[in-house]
Amino acid sequence: MCSRYALHATPMKVAQSLGLPIDLDWDPAYNVAAGRPVPVIATDPDSDDPISTHAQWGFHPHCACDKAPTPINARAESLRSSRYFLGSFRHHCCLVSADDWFEWTESHGKRCPGISIAWMASP
Fold it and tell me: Which residues form a coiled coil (predicted)?
């Protein structure tokens, strides 16, 4: 599962690709790790319109104690059945723009990153 990704598209490129206004600025990042703020498209709770904002990468539901682990991702196959993620999956989704992502594999007893490149058509 992805635990690092790259975002080298400019805010203007992301805005054009999505057809949405992006009022954030960010520098290209080629090794975005969990735990840092990342640019996302979310839903404005007051208007239900899409908004661009920064969000902390990680998940800590209100029902979890403070010392509970903070998962950074979830499997799509189990989101609807997982009590841990279900409420947020239904009501608090966001879109994370990524150009590439890293998948870790094991080779000869060592973990090695492999990059997967997202091929998207330009606007």
Answer: none
